[in-house]
C-alpha cells in the first residue's frame, strides 16, 4: 500500500579507451556471445574490462568491436592471467563454452590470486543445486547455470500472467505497466502535469517510448498517439486510471511445453517450488498441490519432444505430466497435437529457429499465449516485427544474473527498457550513504538519476521532494547504464 513519503526519523590487442577507468576491474574469460555481452554491459558502466580469448580470430574481432583490452591466450595459463592483470582485478568471470575450463580456471585464480572473486558459467545440472547456497564450490564464489537462471525467469513470467506489458516489483507491491496510447486513451494529448492535477492517484511515468526513442518525460510532456508509456504505481491505482490490464492470464487449463531438456526439467521443478508441482508422487508434494493448482486453475501440463527415452526419464520424475513423443520439426506438429487449444505454449527446444516458428504457429492456431526461447541475437531485428507474445533471451538472462553479482553496491536490476540504455534498478541504502535523512529536494545527487519509489518500514512510497532515505530502505531508480558507476560511488558498497 502506498503511503505518505517518509520525512522523519598471450598477445595483447587493444581497442581505444575514451573514458577514465574506475577502480573496479573485471577480467572475462571467453569472448563468445555471453562474454562479449557481459563485457559490453560493463564497459557501458565505465568498468575496466579485460577479455581473455584463445581463438586469434575471435580475439581480433572483439578487440575491434569493444572498447577494452583483449588478451589472446589460455585462461588456465598463469602467465596469461598475470598479463591480463588478474592480480589487480576485483572479479574474474569465466564464461567459455566449456564447464571444465570455466571451473578449473576459476579455481586456478582462487588459488593464485586470493583477493579476486570468481564467477563460472556451468551448464551441468549438478551445479544448479548450489544456487543461492552461498557456498564456494571448488574454489568458485558463484556458479551461474544458464538453464536454472532461465527457468527462474520463465517461472516469474508465468506467475505475472504471461504479460509483456506488466513488470511486478514484488517487494514494493507495485507494477510497471506498458500502456500503448491510442485515440481512446483517456490521457492522450494531455501533459503529465495536467494529468496529475486531474486524477489524484499516486503514479509515476519514468519513461515513454516514441518512435523507437526512449524519453524520460518532464511535467510538460504531452502524450501522443502510438506512444508506449511506462507507468509505475500500485495495481489498484493503475486499474482506476486505465482499467484492468487485459493482457494477463491468471487462470490456466493447459500448459504445453515443446522440448524436454534440462531447462524443461528445471522449469517444472521451479513451478513445483512455486506450488504448481507437476509431480504429486511424494507426500510432501501432495501437501502443496491442492491450493497451488487451484490458484492457477488446475492446469494440465503436456510435454512434447522427439526422443522416447528422454520422455520416459522426465515422466518418471514428474508422473502427472502428459509426455508425447513427436518430432519437433514436423510441419504438422501444431495441428496433430492440438496445440492451438492451449492457454500457454512454451517453446523451449535447443533450436531457436524452431522455437520462434513454433511460437508463431501456436499463436496463429489459437493459443492464448506463446513464449519462445532464443539463445543469441541473430533474429533480434525481426522479433519486434513477428509480434511473438513473449521472447526470453538466455544470454540476456545470464548477463543480468552475472551483473547482479558484480555490481559494487547492493544493486538489483528489475527491468531493462527497450534499447537497453535505461534500467529500472533497486538499491539498498547502507550506513555509508552520506545523505541519510536528507530530503530528496536537498540531496546532492548527480544528474541522470530518477528516483521511482522508496520502500521504508515495509511501506512503499512514490517519492516527493520531501521524501527522505534511511539505512536499509530499498530505493528504485531509473538510470542510464553509463551512470551505474556513479551510482555505486554515491550509495556505497
Lateral strand order in the biggest sheet:
1-4-3-2-5-6-7
Pick out the low-confidence regions: 8-22, 273-293
Helix content: 25-40%
Annotated CATH architecture of the largest domain: 3-Layer(aba) Sandwich
Kindly estimate the percentage of residues that lie in beta strands according to DSSP.
Answer: 15-25%
CATH class of the largest domain: Alpha Beta
- Total beta strands: 23
Radius of gyration: 24 Å
Q: N- to C-terminal separation? A: 29 Å
Count of DSSP H/I helices = 16
Largest sheet: 7 strands, mixed
Summarize model confidence as the mean pLDDT: 82
The shape, in one word, is globular
- Overall SS class: alpha/beta
Description:
With 493 residues, this protein is of the alpha/beta class. It has 4 domains: 11-144, NAD(P)-binding Rossmann-like Domain (Rossmann fold); 152-159 and 249-397, 3-Layer(aba) Sandwich (Rossmann fold), CATH 3.40.50; 166-242, Alpha-Beta Plaits; 407-491, Regulator of K+ conductance, C-terminal domain (Alpha-Beta Plaits), CATH 3.30.70.1450. Helix content is 32%, strand content 24%. The protein has helices spanning 33-44, 56-65, 78-83, 99-112, 125-128, 146-159, 192-199, 235-242, 262-273, 283-295, 308-317, 333-336, 352-365, 380-386, 394-406, 484-491; strands at residues 11-14, 25-29, 48-53, 69-72, 91-94, 117-121, 142-144, 166-169, 174-180, 203-210, 213-215, 228-233, 254-258, 300-305, 322-325, 344-347, 369-374, 390-393, 411-416, 422-428, 449-456, 459-461, 474-480.
